[in-house]
Amino acid sequence: MTTHDVFFTIVGVICAASALLSVTTKHLVHAALWLMVALVALSGCYLVLGAELVALVNLLIYVGAIVVLVLFALMLTRAPIGRSHEHDTSLAQRAASMVLCAATTALLAAVLISGLGNNAVRVSAGSTHTLSVQLFGTWVWPFEMLSLLLVAALVGALAVSRLPNAAIARTESGEGS
Amino acid sequence: MIHLSLPLALVAALFGIGLYGVVARRNAVLVLIGVELMLSAAGLLFVTAGTTMHDPMRGGQVLTIFLITIAAAEISVALAVVVAVFRARGDIDMARAGEDE
Amino acid sequence: MITTGSIQPSLLVVAFPAAVGVLTLLLVRRSRRAAYAIAALGGLLGLLSAVWLLSQQMTGDAAPSPRTIGALPTGGSFAMPLHLQIDALTVIVATAVALVSLVIQLFTRWYLADDPRYRVFAATVGLFTAAMQLVVLSGDVLLIIVGWELMGWCSYLLIGHESDREKARRAAYKAFLVTRFADAPFFIGLIALAVGAHSTSIPAIIAHWSTPGHATALSAALICVICGVAGKSAQVPFQDWLPDAMEGPTPASALIHAATMVAAGTVVLSRIVPLLEQSDPARYVLVVVASISTVLAGVLAFLQNDLKRLLAWSTVSQVGLMLLALSILPPGATPDLAIMHLLSHAMFKALLFLAIGWLSVLVGGTVVPRMSGALRRHPSADTMMAVGLLALAGVPPLSGFVSKDLIVDEAAHRGAAGDGVARIGFVAIVVMVALTAAYCMRAWLILDHRTIAERRQAAQTIEDSHAVQEVGILEMLETSAPVDARGHEIRPVEPGPEAAVDELEVEEAEAARRPPRPGRSARWGLATLTLLSVVGGGLALAPVIDVDWSNVNGWLIAATLLLMAAVALLVRVMSLGTIFGDAAARVPQAVRNSGLRGFGADTAYVNLVGRPVLALARSVAALDDLLDRGVRDLASDAWSLSLRGLAAHNRRPTTGLLALTTGLVVVGVLGVALW
Amino acid sequence: MVASLLIAPLVPILAGIALIAGDRASRVPGRHTTYAIALCAAVIGALATGYAVFARPVLNVQWVPAIGMRLHLSVDGISAPLLVLTAVLGFLVVLHGRHEQPGGGTPGTYFGCLLLVTGGALATFLAQDAISFFLAFELVLVPMWVLIHRFGDPHQPAERARAAAMFILYTVLGSTLMLVGILALVFASGTSDLVALGHGTHLSQGTQTAIAAVLLIGLAIKVPMWPLHSWLPRAHTVAPTAGSVLLAAVLLKMGTYGIVRLVVAPLPLGMARLAPVVGTLAVVGILWGGLVCLVERSLKRLIAWSSVAHMGFVMLGIASGTALGLQAALFGNIAHGVISALLFTVVGGLKQRWGGDDLHVVRDALRDVSPRLGFALVVGFAASLGLPGLAGFWGEVLAMFSAWGAADDQPGGWFKGLAAAAAVGTVLAAGYSLRVLRLVWVGGADKANHVHPAHAGEPLPAANSPATTVQRFADAHGPEWIVVGILVAAVVAIGVDPVPVLHTTDAAVARIFAGVTR
Asked: What is the structure's pLDDT at B41?
């Protein structure tokens, strides 16, 4: 049990627990907030693993942007405030899902741990400098492509959200029929 | 020094929880939250692999950054669609999606 | 060798009649004269070839086993040489067949003077003769089967010649089906014999099976063969097709009865007689079948209301006698007795049929009321008739007497020596001799009857009563319930009295149009047959036939002659005072009616074979429908299953997603576990 | 001349494709042009086949090396008679198309499909490589489906679609199994060359049995053997005359040919193990077909059923495991091809004239109304019941011989029983053949007692009512009469002198059984 282990266990448990709460809570808004907690804890995990830049980016983009977006979306879709059971599936399906998710977890854990082993390894994330050199050297073309993708996604999101109601209804019914 | 099994167990747990969110929720936004958790699990696996193994090109971290970017793009489009669907249908219940109106 | 090149007279014997069939169909369109020319010429050439062959045989120059179309390549160790086999007996039989066939061809020209299908008839007769010659001369079981089946087919065509009448159609159908039914065991018997010997050649078969050690197999095979013979020769239990076959034109009947089809069974059995003599079970079966047939047919002949049918039953009886002669043979003996009777029977039976045919044209029918007194009005045929009937009855010194009494003598001889088969045979023969005398006397008395008054009125009422019992196998084939519901006797199509009158008038008119006598050549042929019927007994003296005529038992012959005389007297007494001079009128009506139907054999065929087979066929057809429906349901089941699966997927996206991910995980678990 | 091997299948196939494609062109070629092209292609194919059969050239070059597939075409004793049969029938059906060209599509498509079937069948019989054999085999199915589906009986569109679907599904299922079997055989034995396979393989009996079972089931669908037959009566009932002829005379033969080539020769041990089952099913088919024929009402269906029975004799010969049985089967194959072609031609003509083929409709005697067709019908049914002197006899009687004397490693008693049952089958054949002749050839019009059972209770119509008036129709003449005449002559010729055909196959059969010395 090293120091790293201890810290990782702490943030990991927080992360897993808040993630679990975010998918099981009955309050819609709480779900988004628990997600935020989970993501913050995840950033902590990244820090423990020595990836400071990733932790920072995660915090900025996920916690700063995405969760806010989710909250906006919840409000725009008139999510009920307070406890509600509308947004959950039937009990049987949830039970099945539970079994399924347990099985998935077990499967993944088994595969990953048996595949990669349980050795105590040294964490060597390297400096942010080398990371940035790599990012803008070796990985620069994928990086540029990604920025293009981002622009396209933004434009697309804008286009979708700006469709007038009638047009949306027409496309819906046209696809549905 | 860190024992590899800890981050890996967290990866598995996050993915499983995300899957539960996707499968067990009816609200589209909550489903998206599940998707985000699964993506996070992937990112954590990348970082774990990158920092605990030989990785001269920093592929683990770079790919995680890419992943976060893509997730942002994905969720922006997805939420736009969700909002549009809500405006057209009045609800975003996944259990009723695809049914004939 | 005198034979010129590779042309064997034995092949010509078969080829000429066959050529008649083929050429008539190919070359002749409308002309009756041309058809007649081909038929007569072909028949004559066939007879000449037979005589040529006979002369070769007498001088010992004949090729013993000429080849035909060459051996069949069987790809293995099985030999199918397809050779003929020429010996004295077969040559004589072939000559007789050729002669009878020629006379019939000559006679047909006159008999079917107005028939538009004369051409086809002549062709069929040619083919029929060829088939019989093939059976007679064959030295190979495969060739026997060929000829045998061809004869069946030709008989179908000939019996159904007047196919515009339903009776003729049914009779033809029945004849072919009954004989074919019996042919199934016949095939199997011959196949068993041939496969055992690894060759279809008859000498090889006899050589193989003559070695001891397989008595059971041999008996079984022979009994199968005997079944087939009983079918073709109309023995019990297949006897009933033959009287119905009288629906064919009289020349066809003469051909079928006298020399070809019915006698073919005797020919085939005489080919394999060395095997028959070794197998006691087969001999017992044969003697029982033949005894029952010969006695039963004699009784039935006496009861018939139609002289043609009387002759038909007498044929069954006489063929039974031939088979009896085969069954009583001791080991090592040759079948000369049976062949001898076959020859004399061929002569007098052809003569009788043609004479009856002649008379029937003159008087317009063959039922007793019409025939009664026929010879009084048309004495031109009386010699022939008298000779034929006397020969049939076996009155010395005609040919029938010689051949029959030789058999009686042999049976007595063998029976006295302690052979059980011969004892059974002897009893049957004695009964049969008495019955033959009875029905011959009856026929003569009818034909020679004095009072012809009231004949015309009675004729119309009785005209159609001799019908084949009208239960169409075919109708049953088509319809199930109606036949059962209707019962088998109800015929909606009974011709009314007017129709009967019309028919009579038409026949009279035809009779008037036709020349009253057959042509010169036909009369010459009939005269030849008459002559041979008288002197044919002399053949026993000839060196080619090996019969022991010198030390026959004189007392025995005297006793049989006495028996015949007594029976004839009794029949004469019975006939006194009847309207048509018909002795059978004294027999109770119920017995006569039953006898007219062959004691219900037809009904038995229908009930025992026809209906069960049809019921089976219907159930099989229903089963097949089920099978078919099963296949079709498979398709619709798959369709509905897929629809249901589709619905399950479409109903809830989340459910579908759950199912999908579950599947993925299961596959993953399986993959990990198995890897 | 090796080119004849390529010309024989390719000319009909290419001409067929060209005709079908020509239909889609902007300017559709006329009827006469189409007919002339089709006839020329068929004649060229037939001549090339004839030359190939006569000269026996061999073509053997590398084709697709990756899977060891070679272009190996040649003629041997087993395929030679089938090639001649196919080529001649291909020519005859095209000739017959002049007389009867069914609606439902353009002449180009019709003749194109006929040529494709013919060419594909020729390629099948020529191919000496298992993979290309399969490819050629499959080529035939789709044009045949088109023939049934588009050019079939115009009165029953629903039944036509169903029959065509059933045909294609059944045969494709058979093809799938056959493909599996071929691949298994090829990989197990290491060669796809049928000549090499023909000398027998050295696989263990278990392997041989498994492969043989798969191949036999697949090919039994094509033959067809009971109980996989139910597509055949349907397909025949609605198919156009030419389609029926090709189906019965060519497609079914490809099934038995495949069994000889792919099962009997390469897998003797497996075949020996399965032979009792095959023989039993064959005999069940004989009896089953014969019995159904006794009550069948549709004349074309009846002939299809009789085909099931006749192919039972062929399969019985194969199952006997003797050289004689194989000879009988190959001969029976040819004989059935000719006979069924004749019967389907005649009956197709009759159906067209009558407007239906219900046997229970009372009609005038065919021998009076139309003597030529009547004569051909008699010859056909006489041959069908196994009359000596006509083609059907030798195959059946030799099959019974072979079954009685089945190979030593077979249960002899059981096969003797099968032979006896087959003999009973010949009696049934006589029963239904004569039934048809009694109803059709000699007619039942003089007495109205063959009406439909439903009408049996009603008062019979008067003799002059429209239902029973004499329907005169034209006798066969022109192309139809030529086709019928040639077929009748062939039936008689093969029946009178079977030696040439048997002689052709003899050496090849002996070679198969020489390779099997065990």
From this structure: 94
Higher pLDDT, C113 or C133: C133
Locate the chain C residue with the closest alpha carbon to D422.
Answer: C184
Lowest mean pLDDT of B24-33, C258-267, C489-498, D368-377, name the range. C489-498
Inter-chain residue contact B23 with C652, CB threshold 8 Å: no
CATH fold, domain A1-84, is Four Helix Bundle (Hemerythrin (Met), subunit A) (1.20.120)
The average pLDDT across C351-372 equals 82
Most confident of C128-137, C274-283, C363-372: C128-137
Q: Do the Cβ atoms of D404 and C147 come within 8 Å?
A: no
Tell me whether chains B and A touch (3+ CB pairs under 8 A).
yes
Q: What domain count does chain C have?
A: 1
Residue at token pair 């019992």: C469
| Structural domain boundaries enclosing C90 | 9-451+518-587
Best of A47, A87, A94 to disrupt the B interface (most B CBs within 10 Å) is A87
> Which burial class, exposed, middle or buried, applies to A7 when counting CB atoms under 10 A from its CB (0-12, 13-18, 19+)?
middle
Q: Give me chain D's average pLDDT, please.
A: 84
What pLDDT is recorded for position C455? Answer: 53
Please report whether residue C511 resides in a domain.
Answer: no
The number of C-beta contacts closer than 8 angstroms across A and C is 21
Give pairs for A109-117: CB < 8 Å, separation 24+: A109/B8, A109/B9, A109/B12, A109/B13, A110/C672, A111/C672, A112/B8, A112/B11, A112/B12, A112/B45, A113/B4, A113/B5, A113/B8, A113/B9, A116/B4, A116/B8, A116/B49, A117/B4
Q: Is C485 inside any structural domain? A: no
Whether D and A touch (3+ CB pairs < 8 Å), yes or no? no
Question: How close B22 gets to chain C, by Cα (Å)?
Answer: 9
> Does some domain include residue C666?
no
Identify whether C512 is part of a domain.
no
**Interface subset of D 453-472, CB within 8 angstroms of C:** 453, 456-457, 460
Residue C208 near residue C273 (C-beta atoms within 8 A): no
- Domain ranges in chain D are 274-518
Number of Cα atoms under 13 Å in the Cβ half of residue C40: 15
Q: What pTM does this model have? A: 0.78
Label residue C477 by pLDDT band (50, 70, 90): very low
The reply to whether A7 touches chain B by the CB within 8 Å rule is no
| Nearest residue, CB atoms, C475 vs list D431, D449, D509 | D449
CB contact (8 A) between residue D456 and residue C72 = no
Residues of C in contact with B22 (CB under 8 A): 657
What values do phi and psi take at A151, rounded to 5? Answer: -60, -45
User: Are residues C657 and B22, on separate chains, in Cβ contact within 8 Å?
Assistant: yes
Whether residue C248 contacts residue C256, with contact meaning beta carbons closer than 8 Å, is answered with yes
Is the domain spanning B5-93 CATH 3.40.50.720? The answer is: no
The minimal CB distance from B8 to the residues A58, A116, A152 is found for: A116
